[in-house]
Automatic annotation (TrEMBL):
Domain TonB C-terminal: 176-239
Ranges of compositional bias, category Acidic residues: 56-72
Gene3D superfamilies registered for this protein in UniProt: 3.30.1150.10
Stored Pfam families: TonB_C
Record lineage: Bacteria, Pseudomonadati, Myxococcota, Polyangia, Nannocystales
Species this protein is from: Nannocystis punicea
Basic and acidic residues compositional bias, start-end: 75-89
Record's protein name: Energy transducer TonB
Compositionally biased spans, kind Pro residues: 42-52
InterPro entries: TonB_C
Ranges for region Disordered: 37-103
Signal peptide interval: none
Amino acid sequence: MSGTLTFSGIIFVWAANKMNITKVDPPTVQFLMVQMSAEEAAPPPPPPPPPAAAETQEEEEKEEIPEEEVPEEIVQPKETPDKVPDVKKSAGGAKSNAVPGGVPGGVPGGVPGGVLGGVLGGQLGGQLGGVATKRDVSQATAPKPIAVVMGNAIYKPDPEANKLAATKAGMFDKRPGTVTIFFCVDVDGKTADVKTKKKFPHNDPKVDEICRDTVKKWRFKPFMVGGKATKICSEVDFNIKFN
């Protein structure tokens, strides 16, 4: 027992020596004083130097001195007429040649109400030496009613039913609608300027094309105006219905 206690004491002492903590000096604390100061703003740049004065100034406009007009030399006529001619008579001509409704300064053969200085037989706004032209009566005027135009019709077939039935509207939609075609009748009785004014309302351009082709086949007797064939225009409505 004594030996065991002795051995344990030796171990304890040895362990205590191993566990001995060396005493060290306490750490020193150093304070660093930092002084912060706001930097002053940089001074503004100096203002730009004033623009240099113009080296030369514009010369003042010289006042224009009006030139003195030299009075014309008045020459006294050598001979003086005994009588002063009557202005009214000389302007309008002799009383025997005066035109009723004429004006002073007119000439014999002029037209009452004409322009002074005009050309005999001329037209207002015309050019001297120009050739007078007449309006071509064969040109188209305002559209005529279709009933008047059809009075001169020689051949006027209707749109072909089998072609209308073969269109998309004829096979599937089958809703009716109206197509308006504008056309003109030329001087030889043939149709011209055929256009679609109002399309088929159910969006099938093939129906419009069939109506235009139908009008192109129409023939008429020439329309006479003043004894001369003239071109006229009109509009026709096609009421399309499907079975």
